[in-house]
Amino acid sequence: MGPYEEACVAMFGFGIPAVPVDDTLAGCLEMDGYVEPGSDPLEIQGFLERSVAQKDTAAAHACLREFAMKRAKALAKKRAAEEEAARAEAERKAAEEAERAEKAEKARKAKEEKEARKKAKAAKKAKKAKKAKKATKTKKTGKAASARRKTAKKSAKKATGASKKKAAKRTAKGKAAKKAKTTAKKPTKAAKAKRSRKKASSKSKKS
What we know:
mainly alpha
C-alpha cells in the first residue's frame, strides 16, 4: 500500500484529516504550474495537509480529484509527448553515438591503412636498399674477380713470356754450341794451307 492509499484509508475509514495525492494529481498540478517541476506526491500531500483546515480536507480532496479527472487527458497527452520526445532524444543520442562510433571506426581503419602503407613503403625501401647493397657487393665482387683474373692472366702471360725467352735463350745457346762444335771440327783456311804446305814439303823431301 502506497502513501495515497494509506491517506484514503485514514480519511475515509477512520475520519483522520488527510489530502491524498497520487501521481496523476501531482502531474496535473505540475503541468498547470501549481507546484515545482519534479515535486514528489508525498511532499505535495504534506504541504496541502498543512495548508488546508482539517474540516476542509474532504472537500479539498474532492475538488482536487475533480481537477485531476478534467486534466487527466491533457496530462496523458503531455506525458505521451514527453515520452515521444524522450524516445526521439534517445534515438538522436543513439544516432550520434553510432555516428561517432562510425567516425572512430573509419579513423581507426584510416590509421591502420596509413600504418600499413607506411610499413609497406618502409619494407619496399628496405628491400630496395638490400637489393642495391647486394648489387654493389656483387659488382665489387665481380670487379675483384675481374681484377684477380686480369692479374692472373698478366702473371700467366708474363710467365709464358719468360718461359719463351728462356726457351729461346736455350735454343740460341744450343745453336751456338752446335755451330761452335761444327766450326771446331771444320778446318780453317790457314789450317788447310798449313797442311798443304806440309804435304808439299814431305813430297819434296822424298824426291
